[in-house]
Design a protein that fits this description.
Elements lengths: L1 H15 L4 H4 E6 L7 E6 L5 E8 L4 H12 L12 H8 L3 H13 L5 E2 L6 E7 H7 L5 E5 L4 E5 L2 E5 L6 E5 L21 E3 L14 H8 L13 E5 L7 H11 L10 E5 L13 H11 L7 E6 L11 H9 L7 E4 L3 E2 L5 H17 L2 E5 L19 E2 L7 E7 L4 E2 L6 E7 L5 H11 L11 E4 L2 E4 L3 E5 L2 E5 L2 H21 L9 H4 L2 H5 L1 E2 L28 E2 L1 H7 L3
Parallel strand pairs: 11-13, 11-14, 12-13, 14-16, 16-18, 18-22
Antiparallel strand pairs: 1-8, 2-6, 3-5, 3-9, 4-5, 6-7, 10-24, 15-17, 18-19, 20-21, 23-24, 25-26
Helix pairs in contact: 3-11, 8-9, 9-13, 10-11
Bound molecules: 2-acetamido-2-deoxy-beta-D-glucopyranose (NAG) (3 copies).
One 2-acetamido-2-deoxy-beta-D-glucopyranose (NAG) binds next to loops.
Length: 564
């Protein structure tokens, strides 16, 4: 009897010991409090199901970054020798020992993981709040985004077993917050407000910018591209739908030299779609397809609609679309995205992970372009602030951030978001350009920005008063949302010429753009400023500046700079 009792008692003890919780958990990530605008409603229901994502340590991420620079730096012997899917995967796949260690730990806890990225560096698990609190020594709580009323479940800190520290980069969603909207308008907002201007007219002057104005301003060719293997991917999120009838009216009005039936192809993921009812047209999506199809004449354009069924753990499809492109044998040579968020809403590890995903796309030969944001030094949108607000993902050094200019005698647009990342350090290609600017700036704004951070934007294009057709009417829009597709179209037309000449597409642009040849091929914008946070913002200046970057495109010069 006694023996049995003891036996039972020890069984009980074992059951209560939470085998892996208390054993060797170590704090992995934490944030002091939820970002401004989120309120805690207390602990999440213990039986609520959580779909968590684990980013595993990649075999050799530094090797991938080195390979990226090797194929993207014009002076390198391997310039243009972009990597295959297998070559990229070899760098980013986790090591067998990582997979084994993580899977063993999950199995001990009754969990199995699903592969969530082509290389297996992201995996997914499904569990309950109760179990996750135990597994990660976390306190998953419900946070309400006050503006939209949308709830999300997050924890302000979590731990992982010490023995897995070298195998797991991060668990998500945990300490990163997403300003998800209820419906449109949204979180990762379309960056441009719409200002109705009147009915369809072929603009006679460039007070409203049209494709003809931009062709004239930047020397963009009107002749059609020839290469069918070349393409632009236009990223679409948050139920922003690209309307084919609006595109047709736009081409009829503003590109009478093109067939008005020229259109985009549709690709979808995460349950994305592209309904064509007039009232479903999205101003951002309309703008994005009109200034790619209507400017990169003859370049095949894919509108990639990312639905709400995110697989990336609340990253709103930002990682899903990268994984989608990485899974292709030949990813689109250009991707333009006019959505973004506050850098401070992201954890350092998550921002880093997503940034490394853009590095993979660059290594594969895709030029990744993002609008820098519309709030000047106050970030994505104008907001009250005391220190300048960096945007994400513009601070990531492995993509090209596009700011905005205004007028035919171009100046930096006041809305153009620009500044310095608090997460990413200065990449080598930018060191001297940035140092020269900071030297001129002196002590102005010292303490309001992080002088050691990567500066953005990298380049700029017109982003004020750009004419589009929306819901069958002509309107004009402003925002860096205009600038990113415009710059992307220029790159796509350069790629067309390169591919026609038997050469590689440009891929990751920045080492080229910041090279002497790149700098000389851009129109340096030296006036304008980007107010915000109760300041007049940074002044544009000769050379790189955090309003217009290195400047705007000059097609003929760029063609010469790439050797054509
Ligand atoms: C647009 O055209 C419609 C029909 O022709 C007309 O009623 C309306 O006043 C016009 N709007 C503007 C702003 O010109
Ligand atoms: C950035 O954060 C501010 C609050 O600090 C918020 O008002 C704004 O909507 C956020 N912007 C985006 C795009 O998430
Ligand atoms: C400034 O930026 C660096 C990256 O260059 C980062 O490590 C550091 O934490 C940032 N400082 C602040 C106060 O955000």
């Amino acid at each position: 009897m006694v023996k049995v009792a003891i036996f039972l008692a020890s069984l009980l003890t074992l059951a209560l010991a939470k085998p892996h919780a208390a054993r060797d958990l170590r704090l992995h990530e934490r944030r002091e409090r939820a970002p401004a605008g989120f309120a805690s409603k207390g602990p999440a229901a213990s039986d609520k199901v959580l779909r968590l994502r684990l980013a595993l340590r990649q075999t050799d991420i530094k090797g991938l970054q080195d390979a990226l620079y090797d194929v993207s730096t014009p002076s390198s012997a391997n310039y243009g020798q972009h990597l295959s899917k297998e070559e990229v995967n070899a760098f980013v796949a986790p090591k067998a020992e990582t997979v084994a260690a993580v899977n063993a730990w999950l199995a001990e806890n009754g969990l199995t993981a699903t592969k969530m990225s082509p290389a297996g560096d992201w995996i997914g698990i499904q569990t309950t709040v109760e179990k996750a609190n135990e597994l990660f020594d976390a306190q998953f709580s419900t946070f309400t985004h006050e503006e939209s009323g949308v709830d999300s479940i997050r924890t302000l800190e979590y731990s992982i077993p010490e023995s897995l520290k070298e195998h797991i980069n991060l668990v998500h969603p945990t300490i990163s917050f997403t300003r998800r909207p209820l419906g449109p308008p949204t979180v990762s907002t379309p960056l441009s407000p719409i200002v109705p201007q009147g009915n369809l007219t072929a603009a006679a002057s460039c007070s409203t910018f049209t494709p003809a104005c931009l062709q004239s301003l930047y020397g963009i060719p009107t002749t059609a591209a020839t290469e069918s293997t070349n393409s632009i991917a236009v990223a679409g999120f948050i139920e922003q739908y690209a309307n084919a009838a609006d595109l047709k009216s736009f081409l009829t009005a503003d590109r009478s030299d093109m067939s008005s039936s020229t259109t985009f192809t549709l690709e979808t993921l995460d349950g994305g779609s592209n309904p064509q009812t007039t009232s479903k047209a999205g101003v951002e999506a309309d703008l994005d397809v009109q200034y790619t199809v209507g400017l990169a004449t003859g370049v095949p354009t894919a509108f990639i609609s990312v639905g709400d069924n995110y697989q990336d753990g609340d990253l709103e499809g930002f990682l899903d679309i990268v994984n989608y492109l990485l899974d292709k044998d030949t990813p689109n040579q250009v991707m333009t995205t006019s959505y973004g968020e506050n850098e401070s809403d992201m954890s350092v590890a998550l921002a880093d992970s997503l940034c490394n995903a853009y590095a993979q796309l660059g290594a594969r030969g895709t030029s990744v372009l993002f609008a820098s944001g519309d709030g000047g030094v106050s970030g994505s949108q104008s907001q009250s602030c005391t220190t300048f607000v960096p945007t994400f993902p513009s601070g990531c050094p492995f993509l090209t951030s596009v700011g905005a200019t205004t007028g035919t005698s171009e100046k930096g647009a006041t809305l153009s978001a620009g500044g310095f990342s608090n997460i990413f350090g200065t990449p080598d290609y930018q060191t001297s350009a940035k140092a020269a600017y900071l030297q001129t700036l002196g002590s102005t704004y010292s303490g309001k920005y992080n002088a050691s951070g990567r500066g953005y934007p990298d380049v700029a294009a017109i982003g004020q008063s750009v004419g589009i057709v929306y819901e069958g009417r002509s309107t004009s829009v402003s925002g860096t949302s205009c600038a990113s597709p415009i710059f992307a179209s220029v790159i796509a037309l350069l790629n067309d010429r390169l591919i026609a000449a038997g050469q590689s597409p440009l891929g990751f642009l920045n080492p080229f753009l910041y090279s002497d040849a790149g700098v000389a091929a851009l129109n340096d914008i030296t006036s304008g400023n980007n107010p915000g946070c109760s300041t007049t913002g940074f002044p544009a200046a000769a050379g790189w500046d955090p309003v217009t970057g290195l400047g705007t495109p000059n097609f003929a010069n760029l063609l010469a700079a790439v050797g054509l």
